[in-house]
Amino acid sequence: QLPPGLYKKVLVILHDSVLPYMNEPTLMMDFLTVAYGIGGAISLLALNGLFILMHQHNLEYPDFYKKLYSLLDPSIYHVKYRARFFHLTDLFLSSSHLPAYLVAAFIKRLARLALTAPPEALLMILPFICNLFRRHPACRVLLHRPAGPADMSEDPYVMEEEEPSESRALQSSLWEVQSLQNHYHPDVAKAAAVLSQTLSEMEDDISGLLELSASELFDREVKKKAVDVPLEFEQVRGLFGKKNDIFAEHFSLD
């Protein structure tokens, strides 16, 4: 058992400063699987090492996606390691052989959590969801269900279910995206509106959005050029702008 702080320090450097120099990286399997089961930030950091062992050393982890699904909680959009987590999650969900119910569960859970996410996270997660729909067309029923959210008495999706196959995500509808289309931030509303249109075949590049911060978003808004908006159709005349205004005879607006 290691202190949480030491766990994090080890896992941050393990995938690029330790595993490549080991004669038998598979010796770290037990350590990483235990770390992955701890939860929170430690589980997020263990993903890097697990990915290398699964991709290069044939590690089999039967409940890997179930555990990855359980890591999706409201804090995932706020944690320090958000960029690393979503980069790896994008890799794990890139295979076209994944079952539709599994990908649909991830889409639905990400969309539900997005309702309370900050704008900088939403500008990353909405293109992320678009990419998942492009890779897995069978999940588009969430967007184009004939009986959409307006005709559903309640959402059949079970948010509290830990098993993705039992979450009933494929029977649901992505009403969360319609809510985000009315978001107070115009860029978020615009990104959400893309899902109501026909998606292009080309995937969005989200690499530049993974580390988007609130300060960057603020700076981007400040640097936008202001557009002059006309507020009056008729030019103001006199003091109160009325026709036959007696004040117009004695006062003028320069």
From TrEMBL:
<dbReference type="GO" id="GO:0030692">
    <property type="term" value="C:Noc4p-Nop14p complex"/>
</dbReference>
<dbReference type="InterPro" id="IPR027193">
    <property type="entry name" value="Noc4"/>
</dbReference>
<protein>
    <submittedName>
        <fullName>NOC4L protein</fullName>
    </submittedName>
</protein>
<keyword id="KW-0812">Transmembrane</keyword>
<dbReference type="InterPro" id="IPR005612">
    <property type="entry name" value="CCAAT-binding_factor"/>
</dbReference>
<comment type="similarity">
    <text>Belongs to the CBF/MAK21 family.</text>
</comment>
<dbReference type="Pfam" id="PF03914">
    <property type="entry name" value="CBF"/>
</dbReference>
<feature type="transmembrane region" description="Helical">
    <location>
        <begin position="85"/>
        <end position="107"/>
    </location>
</feature>
<dbReference type="GO" id="GO:0042254">
    <property type="term" value="P:ribosome biogenesis"/>
</dbReference>
<feature type="domain" description="CCAAT-binding factor">
    <location>
        <begin position="43"/>
        <end position="192"/>
    </location>
</feature>
<dbReference type="GO" id="GO:0032040">
    <property type="term" value="C:small-subunit processome"/>
</dbReference>
<feature type="transmembrane region" description="Helical">
    <location>
        <begin position="31"/>
        <end position="53"/>
    </location>
</feature>
<keyword id="KW-0472">Membrane</keyword>
<keyword id="KW-1133">Transmembrane helix</keyword>
